[in-house]
Structure formats: structure tokens, C-alpha cells
Design brief:
Rossmann fold, 7-stranded parallel beta sheet, 3-stranded mixed beta sheet, 9 helices, globular
């Protein structure tokens, strides 16, 4: 069996290879000389887009590189190459002031799994900031909004969800703080596409995992963090619940394809062919740690729900083809999170 450190190294190499593959796609050539804006560029999604664009500028676009501007609240812990950082809140009126100069906008700002602790940030990023950016976007700008498969709500039947599937929503459920904000954000994109002619498309992402943003709070990274610090994984939902899992590199591929080939005012599911139950995900995470990790099920968990995504539209209209599987990268994600946790701990004997 491959040792944990070697598995992490293999996962990192596979992830880097996938970045190079996406950066070499023919669609990338449409970004030659482009002015690109990536909101939330220090997060897990935004950093993956920036890494692909930086690699493309080094290779595919070397003759006419794209100019990449990233917007985030604060600088990343580790400097990122290939991007000019602008540090402010997307809900700040000045954030969208220079949008007239951008040919492409990838709107990846917003909180993820910690949305219940920061409802104001959800509203500010997914509604206030998004509306400001769309309002200032020139009709010629290619605008891609990063949405989520959570817009479909909680389905109790294990059937494939197409972009036309209806949402199953419980009024006033706390999940709606995030899910409904994404739904309304999608409607804003459609309104600006139909009423103002903005070339706005929507990409609905599966549950995400990736590298280069170890402090990001996704469902996968939160479980990894819990396993690393407590040697336990607590399942808050039904262990049989099913979700789609998508690497951030594959999502970046889908976003770049949607910018060039997507139909304005249209949504696209972007995920993988990989669907895991909550229990299977926990077991995959536990396998990344030597010495064992206890998996704890919660009593009186909500009934199982299913998120089986159909990728037919993205495949046929965009040419989307996912590169990675969770098992390819998970050991590297675990190692990165462990390293970040180790670095954040105070040295032995240090005062406060």
C-alpha cells in the first residue's frame, strides 16, 4: 500500500497535471489578450481559476497573455503569482467601478459551508455584490456566475437532476440562507441577460474539493479538518445521503468553457461522474489518516436526500469532460490541511 506521504505527492502531481490539461484546451485561446476579473480569487474556486489562467499565460497564451485581476477581501496567506490583487468587499460600491474594462468576469465570491454563521456575508456576496457587478457589466462582457447544485434543494428520490429539475424547498429552512441566495443570484443573471443583453451564464457546481486554499470551508475540507484535529468524523445527516463531488480544477474547466460556449441566460451542471454517500465520503477521508479515525453518526438525523447530477448539457453544449476523481486528490488535500493546521498552532511554551 502506498504510504500516506507518497499518496499525497501522487495526488498533487495528478492535480497539477489536470491544471496543465485545462490550460491547454483549445477554448483557452479565446482568452488571448483578454482582461479577466476573478472575484473571490483567494478561495478554493477562485484560486483554481487563477492557477489555470497563470499556466495558460505561461504556455498556450504566452504570445498574448490574459491580464488577470483578482478581487478578495484580504490578501492570501501565500502570495499567488499571475494575478493582480484588489482587496475589498464585492458588496462595496467601488468594487464594480472598473468593470467596464473587463472582457470576462468569473464571479466566485461568497461563503460556503459556514454560511449559517455568516448570513450577512451570504446576502452581501450572492445578492448585493452580484447585482452591482451585473449592473456595471458591459453587454459584451462574458459573465459567469458560480452557483451550486444546492439550488435543487433536498430531493428524496435518487433520480438524475437536469438543469430543468424543480427545487424541493422547505420554507424557512436554514439551508435557504445559502440555497435560496444562489437561486435568486441565478435569476439576477437571467434578468440581466434578457433585459440588458449581458452575456451571463450560470454554472451549478457539485460538492467541491481542491488544493491551494487550505483554509476554505467546504463540506469536504471541514470533515478533513475535524478528522485531523479530533480523530473523529461526525455525520450530521443521514449516512445514505448522496452527493456529487467535483474537483475545483474540473469546475474551472467548466467555467472557462461556459464563458466561451455557454448560452446567455442558461445554467449548466458541472460536476463529475462520481457520486458518494455521506458514509462513503467519511470512509474515504478516514483512510487518509494513519492510526484510524472514528466515524460517528448523529441520532435523529434528517431523512436521506440525493443530489445525482446529470452532466449531459455541459458535455453536449460545452464539451465538458471532468479530469479527476476524489480518490486521486483526497490524500493531497488532507496533507495540505494538516500542514496548515500545524503551522497555525503556537510553538510549545509560547505565550499569548
Amino acid at each position: 500500500m502506498i504510504a500516506a506521504t507518497e499518496a499525497a505527492a501522487v495526488g498533487r502531481r495528478r492535480y497539477d497535471e489536470a491544471i496543465r490539461t485545462v490550460a491547454a484546451l483549445p477554448v483557452i485561446e479565446s482568452l488571448a489578450g483578454a482582461d479577466v476579473c476573478v472575484t473571490g480569487f483567494t478561495g478554493q474556486v477562485g484560486s483554481a481559476i487563477v492557477r489555470v489562467l497563470a499556466e495558460a499565460n505561461r504556455t498556450t497564451l504566452a504570445g498574448r497573455p490574459a491580464r488577470v485581476t483578482g478581487i478578495a477581501r484580504r490578501p492570501p496567506a501565500t502570495p499567488m503569482g499571475g494575478v493582480e490583487g484588489v482587496y475589498l468587499d464585492v458588496a462595496d460600491a467601488s468594487a464594480a467601478a472598473s468593470l467596464d474594462s473587463f472582457s470576462h468576469v468569473f464571479y466566485a465570491a461568497g461563503v460556503t459551508s459556514d454560511y449559517r454563521s455568516h448570513p450577512g456575508d451570504v446576502v452581501a456576496s450572492q445578492l448585493v455584490g452580484l447585482q452591482a457587478f451585473l449592473e456595471r457589466a458591459d453587454p459584451g462582457c462574458r459573465f459567469v456566475f458560480v452557483s451550486s447544485a444546492r439550488v435543487y434543494g433536498r430531493h428524496t428520490d435518487d433520480e438524475a437532476l437536469s438543469e430543468e429539475s424543480e427545487a424541493i424547498v422547505a420554507p424557512m429552512h436554514l439551508d435557504n440562507l445559502y440555497d435560496s441566495a444562489k437561486r435568486l443570484g441565478e435569476s439576477l443573471c437571467r434578468w440581466h441577460a434578457e433585459r440588458r443583453g449581458v452575456n451571463a451564464t450560470v454554472v451549478r457546481a457539485g460538492n467541491l474539493y481542491g488544493l491551494d486554499a487550505p483554509s476554505s470551508a467546504t463540506s469536504v475540507s471541514e470533515l478533513l479538518r475535524e478528522a485531523a484535529t479530533t480523530r473523529r468524523i461526525t455525520l450530521s445527516g443521514d449516512p445514505a445521503s448522496l452527493r456529487n463531488y467535483c474537483s475545483t480544477v474540473d469546475l474551472a474547466q467548466g467555467l472557462l468553457l461556459a464563458a466561451e460556449r455557454g448560452q446567455s441566460g442558461r445554467a449548466y451542471n458541472v460536476g463529475s461522474d462520481e457520486h458518494l454517500t455521506t458514509r462513503e465520503l467519511a470512509e474515504s477521508i478516514a483512510a487518509c489518516f494513519d492510526g484510524g479515525v472514528e466515524i460517528v453518526e448523529t441520532a435523529d438525523a434528517p431523512a436521506a436526500s440525493y443530489q445525482r447530477l446529470s452532466l449531459d448539457r455541459a458535455r453536449s453544449e460545452l464539451g465538458y469532460a471532468p479530469e479527476l476523481r476524489l480518490r486521486d486528490v483526497l490524500p493531497a488535500v488532507a496533507a495540505e490541511i494538516i500542514d496548515a493546521l500545524t503551522e497555525s498552532r503556537p510553538a510549545s511554551g509560547s505565550g499569548r
